[in-house]
Design brief:
With 615 residues, this protein is of the alpha+beta class. It is built from 26 helices and 11 strands. The longest helix has 26 residues.
């Protein structure tokens, strides 16, 4: 069996396709991840301090986040991509993999995708690394074009590990969940005020549609792993997957979760569509002709750099040596091709030297502001002087380059087998992790073997593997939005600051309506909604959580903790078992009740809560 799989895998590995889709995935996913990291950086004291701004954590986190953000920016631009990917992965593991105060399931996708960035050729196109290769191996007689194709398997692996495995494990939770088996997997979370960002009652009240979407999600996750790689299923799976996650974006305060998965789905867009898109843009009418000396190193580098950033869609680059038509606009030029370049606009106006560069910047809409700045007196004269000096003193050193990559069949075979067995290994790890999922445990109970010693040992092994694989590869359990998240969740808790003058200000945790405030999105929402608060109130966790959030908010808003008072409000909600018309609207209208207060005196925290362990 493995021999046949290896043969098919090798065929797919050897299939070379354009790398633009992979590069676009790198850019979009990294931008989403950058947003997540910036959010974590803003809330770093809330997440990592023992008490925000009062008792710091074990290490200062801002240098970590600064270095992390820089590495992600390098990934976005594709500069020193391999090194940036290694740094990004290490920091992802160190920061995300070690957070224990709450769980945010998108962290697992970030970990595995950032791990894959180290090995997959995501910078083959649309990157500064590609430009550096062009400059390194080009000379006055040859413009090197680095390969921009990648193995087709590079498109499948992030989808398999970053989405497929997550769906696979999630199904083992959902198929044992009464909530999902009744078709309420989307309706119930979308009907709880503390879990939604907008009042989507108009959609929730469409009973058969919302229940059908719940079952569709369940079916989709069940079959995804077996159909996503089939060509005829690609577009339906792509459309449905993106649609479901845009629905998450519309309903729930986890925007980077939704957008991050959508970014992975970019890899399922047919490569031919990217070819059509880029070819249409390249077919735009040229606005300027740029003449340069093909024997000049500076002229060649200029053409390479500008062409790399796509300006050849607007500018036609022509070596003087290939000017067979002897453009009449150049008859009065000095013909000093070594130290000067020329550009000609549609009106046959000639621009020379530094003015030629300004002209090229002006015809590109996103570079126009740069051209305006470079025309300013003083800046213009200094820049022109530097340009003239560089052009005159630029040497004609040549770079020798072999345009074809050396082929080593044994090495290639080793790479294929290593990648194949790595995927087999990760698949086995996922199966070991899923072994302790609710559905697996239920099946063992039905079979009457759950109490056997060998089963207990195997479950212990599975739990240990999960602890390790979740931190380093993002392979973990994914019980997202199942019964345990919402069973008994019949309340909403808000915090209100009372100023010395007696005015009240609601903290951006839970709004007056009862929906998440501006603090609660992504991991911070998960922290408050399922760790500080939760279906069953833990008095100690709630007390400490309110302490941390109030201390954090007070510092950010310049409120002294030497005498600050915060009131705690609670709204009692219902706990539905089946679909109900207009349920969310009714919960939003429930009144707020007094649940005590917390006081800060001389930076010491004094809670006085009336909330009992179960509302």
């Amino acid at each position: 069996m493995f021999k046949n799989l290896l043969t098919k895998f090798t065929t797919l590995y050897n299939k070379q396709i354009d790398g633009k889709g992979l590069a676009i995935f790198r850019i979009v996913f990294s931008i989403v991840f950058l947003g997540e990291v910036i959010q974590l950086a803003y809330f770093q004291h809330l997440i990592f301090d023992k008490i925000p701004y009062l008792i710091p954590g074990e290490i200062e986190m801002w240098p970590v986040f600064l270095f992390w953000i820089i590495s992600i920016l390098f990934l976005i631009f594709g500069l020193f991509t391999r090194v940036a990917a290694i740094i990004n992965y290490v920091l992802t593991v160190v920061v995300l993999g070690t957070i224990s105060s709450f769980e945010y399931h998108m962290f697992y996708s970030y970990i595995i995708v950032n791990f894959l960035f180290i090995f997959i050729p995501v910078s083959r196109t649309l990157s500064l690394d590609r430009l550096l290769l062009k400059l390194k191996y080009s000379n006055t007689g040859f413009h090197y074009k680095p390969p921009q194709t990648v193995s087709a398997i590079s498109y499948y692996i992030p989808v398999l590990l970053g989405v497929g495995f997550i769906y696979f494990d999630s199904v083992f939770f959902k198929l044992s969940s009464p909530l999902w088996l009744r078709g309420l997997g989307l309706w119930l979370p979308g009907s709880l005020p503390e879990a939604v960002i907008f009042n989507n009652s108009f959609l929730l009240n469409l009973k058969y549609l919302i229940i059908a979407l719940g079952y569709l999600t369940l079916i989709f996750e069940t079959i995804f792993l077996f159909v996503f790689w089939r060509k005829k299923w690609r577009m339906p799976v792509l459309i449905l997957g993106i649609g479901l996650h845009l629905g998450i974006l519309m309903f729930f305060p986890i925007p980077f979760f939704a957008l991050g998965v959508v970014a992975i789905y970019i890899l399922m867009i047919p490569v031919s569509l990217w070819d059509i898109f880029f070819k249409q843009r390249e077919a735009l009418q040229k606005q300027t002709k740029f003449y340069y000396d093909s024997n000049s190193l500076s002229g060649n580098r200029t053409a390479i750099i500008l062409g790399h950033f796509g300006v050849n869609r607007y500018i036609e680059f022509i070596p003087f040596q290939k000017n067979d038509n002897n453009d009449p606009a150049l008859k009065n030029s000095s013909n000093n091709y070594l130290t000067e370049v020329y550009s000609i606009d549609r009106k046959n106006k000639v621009y020379t030297g530094w003015d030629s560069f300004i002209r090229m910047l002006n015809v590109i809409w996103y570079l126009k502001p740069v051209s305006w700045i470079l025309r300013c007196p003083g800046i213009y004269h200094i820049a022109r002087g530097l340009y003239n000096y560089t052009a005159i003193n630029c040497t004609k050193e040549l770079y020798k380059e072999n345009n074809s990559e050396p082929t080593n069949f044994t090495l290639r075979q080793l790479k294929v087998k290593t990648l194949f067995w790595s995927l087999i290994f990760f698949s086995i790890v996922q199966l070991i992790v899923t072994y302790t999922s609710p559905l697996s445990k239920l099946l063992r109970q039905k079979m009457g073997v759950s109490e056997l010693k060998v089963v207990k040992i195997s479950e212990s092994i599975s739990n240990n593997v999960t602890d390790f694989s979740g931190v380093f590869w993002g392979i973990s359990h994914h019980g997202v939005f199942v019964d345990s998240h919402f069973a008994g969740y019949n309340h909403d808790i808000a915090v209100v600051y009372v100023s010395p003058a007696g005015s009240e200000k609601w903290l951006p945790i839970i709004s007056k309506k009862g929906t998440p405030g501006s603090y609660l999105f992504g991991p911070v929402w998960a922290k408050w909604t399922f760790r500080v608060d939760g279906p069953l109130v833990n008095q100690d966790k709630l007390t400490n959580g309110i302490r941390d959030f109030t201390a954090f908010w007070a510092h950010k808003n310049g409120i002294s903790l030497k005498g600050a008072v915060f009131k705690i409000r609670v709204k009692k909600n219902q706990e539905p078992k089946y679909w109900e018309y207009n349920f969310l609207n009714r919960q939003l209208q429930n009144p707020w009740l007094d649940a005590g207060q917390v006081t800060w005196k001389d930076n010491l925290y004094y809670p006085d809560l009336k909330i009992i362990e179960k509302m």
